[in-house]
Amino acid sequence: MTKLKWGMIGGGEGSQIGPAHRLGAQADGRFAFIAGALDHRPEEGRAYARRLGIAADRAYGDWTEMLAGERDRDDRIDLVTVATPNATHFEITKAFLEAGFNVLCEKPMTMTVEEGEEIVRVAERSGRICAVNYCYSAYPMVRQARAMVRNGEIGKVRLVVANFSHGHHGDAADADNPRVRWRYDPAMAGISGQFADCGIHAMHMASFVCDDEVENLSADFVSTIPSRELEDDAMVNFRMSGGTVGRLWTSSVAIGRQHGFDIQVFGETGGLRWASEQPNQLLYTPVGGRTQIIEKGEAGLHEDARRLSRVSIAHPEGFPLAVANIYCDLADAIAGETRDGLPDAAAGVRSMAAVHAAVASARKDGAWTDARPPMFRQE
Amino acid sequence: MTKLKWGMIGGGEGSQIGPAHRLGAQADGRFAFIAGALDHRPEEGRAYARRLGIAADRAYGDWTEMLAGERDRDDRIDLVTVATPNATHFEITKAFLEAGFNVLCEKPMTMTVEEGEEIVRVAERSGRICAVNYCYSAYPMVRQARAMVRNGEIGKVRLVVANFSHGHHGDAADADNPRVRWRYDPAMAGISGQFADCGIHAMHMASFVCDDEVENLSADFVSTIPSRELEDDAMVNFRMSGGTVGRLWTSSVAIGRQHGFDIQVFGETGGLRWASEQPNQLLYTPVGGRTQIIEKGEAGLHEDARRLSRVSIAHPEGFPLAVANIYCDLADAIAGETRDGLPDAAAGVRSMAAVHAAVASARKDGAWTDARPPMFRQE
Amino acid sequence: MTKLKWGMIGGGEGSQIGPAHRLGAQADGRFAFIAGALDHRPEEGRAYARRLGIAADRAYGDWTEMLAGERDRDDRIDLVTVATPNATHFEITKAFLEAGFNVLCEKPMTMTVEEGEEIVRVAERSGRICAVNYCYSAYPMVRQARAMVRNGEIGKVRLVVANFSHGHHGDAADADNPRVRWRYDPAMAGISGQFADCGIHAMHMASFVCDDEVENLSADFVSTIPSRELEDDAMVNFRMSGGTVGRLWTSSVAIGRQHGFDIQVFGETGGLRWASEQPNQLLYTPVGGRTQIIEKGEAGLHEDARRLSRVSIAHPEGFPLAVANIYCDLADAIAGETRDGLPDAAAGVRSMAAVHAAVASARKDGAWTDARPPMFRQE
Amino acid sequence: MTKLKWGMIGGGEGSQIGPAHRLGAQADGRFAFIAGALDHRPEEGRAYARRLGIAADRAYGDWTEMLAGERDRDDRIDLVTVATPNATHFEITKAFLEAGFNVLCEKPMTMTVEEGEEIVRVAERSGRICAVNYCYSAYPMVRQARAMVRNGEIGKVRLVVANFSHGHHGDAADADNPRVRWRYDPAMAGISGQFADCGIHAMHMASFVCDDEVENLSADFVSTIPSRELEDDAMVNFRMSGGTVGRLWTSSVAIGRQHGFDIQVFGETGGLRWASEQPNQLLYTPVGGRTQIIEKGEAGLHEDARRLSRVSIAHPEGFPLAVANIYCDLADAIAGETRDGLPDAAAGVRSMAAVHAAVASARKDGAWTDARPPMFRQE
């Protein structure tokens, strides 16, 4: 099993996201880290890359240099991860796709719906993989939930309830801390705060597990800390194409909730519940029956849950290995196996459309708003 | 400590509510059960009352007979509980209040807002107690939460999230079962299904714990089982007079949730979380600090939590004793002590106004709607 | 349904146990409280009884007076509860049994094994009910567990693990507080501290759920606070008649555990787990299968679990109603129905023998010791 | 940061332990995997090593070949992991230590106490690191617990209770399955079954967190499935050098427990509780105060907890990264930083002595037995 060749843009020294991706890519030995443009300061980026073991000729000063350098090599990288500031994702992702590289882009994939649609088209034309890092969808028990839904084990889905609420931005005294403030400042974060930051993970999860897409929505956005221009709490009701009703609450001022990301799916013949702080269990209740605790690693799980787990039952696997699971999926997809399960460019643009729809709805007192990218409205 | 004299209307043989009230009233020895009109069939009601130890002359055939019989006695009852079908609550409650009796009315207090306002006025004129059985508010740790909010221990409340979602009506095959069907049939249940049945408990709880009132709301109602005319799932966003933002989800098709009634209150300096299936604990997180588990019965609780608990720390007390706590409060109030804590007629009419507002909002795609009874809009 | 006539000895003003029994006896309307000798100070006892509504001629000054007074009445009490200091249980229980009364005795039934055996014989001769208040055994889900074991649903029981550990006596600074100290002082508590106080509940529970008896045991007792003469922490290994292996840990210095009473039963084909702080759920795992959450009030429970629950699924019922369940069982037994389920005098003497055996074993470095009362060794 | 050079003996294709070590060593980029003798079948081992990217000249046929090959290289490996069958650990570990290599040995380090003592002496003479893979001790919150104990935050430790009980060998029908059977067969597993397999992890954890050593013990071993020669359930009481009382239960027939490894530590001024299935939280209760939930990643943790965590608060980290933490510690130790925290050869021989002492005690009806290796008895 030869390792695939992997490079990274962004994720420089001191970032949280750099180590997370490097661990994810390398944990299972599927990728070798051999190229990088890690910092917006060229020299720092080259030096850091070399300290991480990258050869001098592949320790690049910026992404354009990296694109130029890698494009014509025989041993060019098989995958590039884009973990730069949000506003640059579109340009970089597009350029690498057009040059024939597979890309894993951090979320948000783009800042506008139009850009997002362009990425979808470019990816399609190129035939390359364009994945977006909705990594929570790669927890084994989330995959089990999706497989159960697909397999009809809870019947037609009536209702999905997804929350992603924490309290880490609840301290008004801390609101001017730059580490926090930018998230609620439209000049830096764009049109949405907490919904775009966390809520969109919950919305992707709802689509992913239900295997369905959000069609329209109604949003209630509030800034509970007055100095904030963007919302720090939001409630979004939605409807999916298949008729499923959705409820989504996201907050950053829910003091005491740590990483309150959970999903509940209720179908005609059963219900499923999963929470990210206890990711190795999935609660399943058949209608009229008792709640059962499904454990990661138990016998008889669906294949997609089975293959994304490394250690036996009740040995917990956590967030960094969910990221690693995305890389496992990428390695398989690059090897020509299925791309099913990988959050793709369509997922990226759908998220962007949902953010724009939610902002529009919230500004109109919750008016129901089409949440689909134009390109997917003819469906 | 002489026992107070208590009578009951409704709650006949085979009902669930009759034993619950009799246990609640008698568990702590505060009330003696001495009069009743327990059944809509006069003979059955009299016979059952006598089997329960009621003297023959106070085993009444119906509520008018009971009113006539009790009104002029020297030893007339101190409190009457009204646990008849919903549509009759108004008439009976009004008549007993006007005759100078204290009343505990099952929810809903009335079917219309106008009736509710009339009860408020009648109660005020009479000087008598008119309480509504929002018994979840009488759990000791709910009282602790309210006392902490009042005491400023979590600062100004920004956000309250209350859910009351279960899955016991999730089986479509069971939807025509008369025991279930009536709840979703406007001919029997009125204008609202699950929101009026369960959601309103959550809304009362939000007001109760936050010590504030709902001002306006936006609702999304759905019937996930097509044969149902009334909603079996609802999301309601609301705002309170003091500016608090509210989120309320209620469902009866959330298969796997048993009695998913919980409340989360987030203030400027802390958060509180409580769940009815684990009612003896309250989670408290000061901003920037660790979550603490507050236990019923621990040293240093607020007085209202302390006095409503019977057994020492970590000996669980459950739902029937929450009902008993309402009766303890009633006994105290009848003895002339504070009525604070007792859900009153104002709470009853506010709930009714909220139900009507939610129905109106849901019919207008979630338009924000004033949720206050007209009599309380000048505040 | 005429109420049974009930009297109480002990449980005077300010005690915790008095209200608990009065609630338990009266909550379901099965017993009327009509006689009492409530205090060791005759006048205080009579006055308190009258305040609680006892007629003057049945408000007794002490138990001998009560025995004399009740013995020859036509309307004598149907049941007497003995809730006096431990050292008096034997004498009072014996006297009332011999006079033909049914008795509910607080634990410990006696101080010695010999006395316990005498109670067994007296109860047998009298034909009366002699019950001991092992009230935890009356939680509905404990009854469900026992019924499942009896019904073979987990196969032959291999192993039972019961803990009753809390931390409420863990503060050395509080050890001289009289409210705490007496429990570790042989002059007041007898030969055992924490094991006799709490551990014995766990041992009874193990026997009760497994439907089997402890045969021999090995104990390790320690006093972690040096000023204590009696143990505040104990581990007891035991074997039951049917071959089941037992493990029992009890502690009063386990700071952070509040009411850490739980039981786990492991058989050839399944396991059961229950905890007193979450008493309305029972975890059941069939061998090779998933853990299921059995809920109090769900459809299809065993009869003994069903009948001892008052409110529907997931409405919690707590400790005071477990006591009330003992009184329900007593009412049924007095009415001539089964005594099965009621902890009886044999259970009382077995507990006493186990305490003595554990003390003897602990003094001999854990030597295995017969834990059966002599009268039950021929079995 | 140049990667350290790492090799592995054992962990061939299809093993669970091979991938776990490779992930652990490589996840954080601290080690490069460059040498291996992975299989007892030389050709298979060499081929598999090459498939994993090992150069041909360092893909060895067996450990003697690997020792010979690595010993004289300038670029010899910095660390070798020994993950071969238990009976071979002693010989290989000793040989590599003597040749000047750092070693991470799987548990058990040796089969006898004498061998264990020899490893301690060899390691000491060599100055090299000899670590044993008690990886549960490397969870961040276990490190937090130990740091709190060392820092006096719960006062002098009175009591430690450690359990490691699961039910995965509870199916008698599966007992003859070779994958299960060998664990209870002295010809293959040695003198102890479940205690040596799982219990010893709990005993190491108790020593590790309490920062103290087991001095003597009393054991009760049983085989609940008759065909088993070695125990499948054990209770061990022990005493530590500092006077701490210990309780340890381990079982493989506790059907329904999945990975029931937990530890509770009770001191004079507080208690700590941790469970391996929820490893990112630590419960802390100060005496007389409320239980607090300490979260991995929260501000103000002890350094040893902080540095062994990769992602922010409430993003779970699981078992594979606990293994990775051992490798982080090894990398630091090789770089000359502290070896504190690394389970060492002394820990390895102490475990072996405890196993032998427990077997001896169990054979003598629980007689208290010195659990220390002779070399540590003069302390």
Automatic annotation (TrEMBL), chains A, B, C, D:
Gene3D superfamilies: Dihydrodipicolinate Reductase, domain 2, NAD(P)-binding Rossmann-like Domain
Residues covered by the Gfo/Idh/MocA-like oxidoreductase N-terminal domain: 5-134
GO MF annotation: an example: nucleotide binding
A Pfam family of this chain: GFO_IDH_MocA_C3
SUPFAM superfamilies: Glyceraldehyde-3-phosphate dehydrogenase-like, C-terminal domain, NAD(P)-binding Rossmann-fold domains
Bilayer-spanning residue ranges: none
Domain GFO/IDH/MocA-like oxidoreductase, chain residue ranges per copy: 142-272
The protein, known as: Gfo/Idh/MocA family oxidoreductase
